[in-house]
Amino acid sequence: MSFLLYRSLVYLHPAAFRRQFGSELLVIFEDAVVADGAAALLFDVVVSLLRQWLLRSGLWKAGVAVLGAAVQVIPALMMATRHARVSQIVPARGAPIEADGLVAITVFMVCFVAAMLVAVVFWSIHVARLAAKRR
After folding, report:
1. Does residue 111 have a pLDDT over 60?
2. What is the pLDDT of residue 83?
3. With 0-12 CB in 10 A as exposed, 13-18 as middle and 19+ as buried, what is 45?
4. Residues 9-18: what's their mean pLDDT?
5. For residue 54, what pLDDT is reported?
6. CB within 8 A of 58, min separation 6: which ones?
7. Model-level pTM?
8. Following CA atoms 50, 67, 133, 48 in sequence, which dihedral angle do they give, to the nearest 10 degrees?
9. Which among 42, 60, 41, 50 is positioned nearest to 17, based on CA atoms?
């Protein structure tokens, strides 16, 4: 059972990594599971899987960009609430946000998030083109 799980986790690695190291990982697992058990190697393959997809594939850049966009949402929400004449982001208990204010905040935030996503996509395309030129 543990070998099937380990093999599945190795298969989830990026194709280039799997072609280069997949068979070695499986042989090492078969040898080590008899001597030391499977827990440490299962943990290691999960860490490797995360590392390969996040760091080596460049997905971490998109994650940082989304985090940066999320950090900007707080001031944008504050600006939207001022624009919509809403006194607080979280109103006092029993003081509802008026419907037109809620619509204005929602439209502003949707437009802001869409603009950030477009910026991330164009930036990713630009970085990919630069990387392709270097090769």
Report:
1. yes
2. 58
3. buried
4. 87
5. 75
6. 127
7. 0.45
8. -10
9. 50
Question: What is the rounded CA–CA span in Å between residue 52 and residue 39?
Answer: 20
Residue corresponding to tokens 């624009």: 83
| Total Cβ atoms within 10 A of residue 6 | 22
Contacts 24+ apart (CB under 8 A), 24-29: 29/3
* Distance, C-alpha 73 to centroid of its chain: 17
Please identify which residue in the block is written with the tokens 């989304």: 66
What does DSSP assign to residue 13?
S
Distance CA 15, CA 31 (A): 24
pLDDT in tens, 116-125: 888 888 888 8
pLDDT in tens, 17-40: 889 988 998 888 888 877 777 788
- Helix 15-36, helix 2-11: angle, nearest 10: 160
